[in-house]
């Protein structure tokens, strides 16, 4: 006799409360037994109905009983047929009817229990909704992007702005231009001290249109300005240069409480500001750093002249302009000799005679080889050990006009000066000026100017 599956077994199978091995055995039995498949179908339909319906209607029991009656009528027909064939068939029909009655009783019990719970606890579903675990509730994803910003802050003397690199996090929904302004408010150290933004300033809004960033600030940006055109200059350029580091921003239009303002305190304020490269100084090109570089270069150049090391000297000569040699402090552009970077490497051994200018007093041409000129009008004193080393200061000595700063505009001049001996009344003073010009962030020698007492 075939053993059929109980309603309890089928319910456990539907609910997933059986082992993998038992599940495979039940599936195999259902494939072979039509009676158990019929029970399983009724059980599955009823379970789905309970899961999908929002409420239990009064027709539920009737619908279940009708399904069972159909099974009963079918079993009765089978019973008559079985009588004709075998004495064992009625027994099987009776088992099937008992199974259907058992199914009705099982789900009838579940129905009554569910109905009682629904009637006595009407707010239970609402309570369950409220106490959902965080895992059941979708949490909005917060996207955080890390970017590197270049911010500009005033130097100590408030003459220039200096770039500072800062790594910051930007959350989704944040505007990057607003993050830049917020970081400027933190100051160069990031702790709110030494901030360039006037105290109490609030960023009300920002918008970028056609390459222009419209920065809408509170009135404190104007009212709490400490004053002075120099401060205004570095303040505006700190903000503008920081924002124009962003590729989508070319200009910045300041708004105060949503309105354009004609002037800040001294500066015209109603037009967009463009980036200002001339006010930027890096750690390498601050005035202090430049002076250190020029002094170091001067020492190296003097050492090369003293040692007559033209190979080393050529490294410091301007690659395009070469170096101009002036025998006196008045630079004559048409007469002075200019030597290229390559020429100077081998010129010391050359017998070529150059006309370097005119001797003061006699007016005779200065006709010398490079080696002779070097000994007479360049390193004729031990300038490495000069009495004074003077950086970017003009001194007019003797009766020759000093036009070095006019000829070499934008360059830096370092002068090595010997004051002379008392026995000659100081008339034997000597001076050598080295002139350096920048190219692509590097300083090169462009002028060697000798100076002495002239008649």
UniProtKB/TrEMBL annotation:
Keywords assigned? Lipoprotein, Membrane, Transmembrane, Transmembrane helix
GerMN domain location, by residue?
A: 177-265
Query: What InterPro entries does UniProt report for this protein, alphabetically?
Result: GerMN, Znf_put
UniProt biased composition (Polar residues):
117-134
Q: Per the record, which residues fall in region Disordered? A: 117-136
Which domain of life does the UniProt lineage start with?
Bacteria
| Annotated transmembrane regions | 87-107
Protein name per Swiss-Prot or TrEMBL: Lipoprotein LpqB, GerMN domain protein
> Mind giving the lineage of the organism this protein is from?
Bacteria, Bacillati, Bacillota, Clostridia, Eubacteriales
């Amino acid at each position: 006799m075939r053993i059929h599956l109980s309603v309890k077994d089928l319910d456990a199978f539907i609910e997933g409360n059986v082992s993998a091995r038992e599940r495979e055995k039940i599936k195999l039995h259902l494939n072979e037994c039509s009676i158990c498949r019929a029970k399983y179908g009724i059980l599955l339909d009823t379970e789905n109905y309970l899961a999908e319906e929002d409420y239990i209607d009064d027709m539920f029991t009737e619908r279940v009983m009708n399904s069972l009656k159909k099974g009963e009528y079918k079993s009765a027909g089978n019973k008559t047929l079985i009588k004709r064939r075998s004495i064992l068939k009625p027994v099987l029909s009776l088992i099937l009817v008992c199974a259907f009655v058992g199914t009705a009783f099982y789900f009838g019990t579940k129905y009554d229990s569910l109905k009682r719970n629904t009637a006595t606890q009407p707010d239970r579903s609402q309570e369950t909704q409220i106490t959902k675990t965080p895992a059941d509730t979708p949490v909005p994803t917060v996207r955080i992007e890390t970017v590197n910003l270049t911010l500009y802050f005033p130097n100590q003397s408030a003459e220039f702005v200096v770039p500072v690199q800062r790594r910051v996090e930007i959350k989704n929904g944040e505007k990057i231009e607003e993050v830049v302004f917020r970081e400027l408010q933190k100051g160069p150290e990031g702790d709110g001290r030494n901030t360039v933004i006037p105290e109490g300033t609030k960023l009300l809004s920002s918008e970028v249109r056609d390459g222009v960033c419209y920065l809408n600030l509170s009135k404190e940006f104007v009212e709490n300005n400490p004053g002075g055109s120099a401060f205004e200059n570095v303040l505006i350029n700190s903000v503008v240069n920081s924002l124009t580091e962003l590729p989508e921003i070319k200009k910045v239009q300041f708004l105060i409480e949503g309105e354009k303002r004609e002037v800040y305190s001294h500066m015209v304020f109603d037009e967009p500001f463009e980036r200002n490269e001339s006010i930027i100084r890096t750690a390498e090109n601050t005035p202090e750093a430049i002076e250190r570089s020029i002094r170091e270069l001067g020492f190296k150049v003097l050492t090369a002249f003293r040692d007559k090391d033209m190979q080393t000297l050529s490294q410091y000569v301007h690659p395009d302009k070469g170096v101009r040699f002036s025998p006196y402090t008045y630079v004559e552009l048409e007469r002075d000799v200019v030597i290229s970077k390559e020429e100077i490497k081998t010129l010391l051994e050359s017998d070529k005679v150059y006309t370097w200018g005119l001797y003061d007093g006699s007016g005779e041409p200065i006709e010398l080889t490079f080696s002779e000129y070097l000994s007479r009008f360049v390193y004729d004193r031990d300038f490495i050990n000069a009495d004074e080393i003077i950086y970017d200061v003009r001194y007019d000595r003797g009766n020759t006009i000093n036009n070095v700063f006019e000829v070499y505009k934008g360059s830096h001049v370092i002068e090595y000066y010997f004051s002379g001996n008392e026995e000659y009344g100081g008339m034997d003073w000597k001076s050598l000026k080295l002139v350096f010009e920048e190219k692509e962030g590097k300083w090169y020698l462009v002028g060697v100017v000798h100076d002495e007492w002239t008649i």
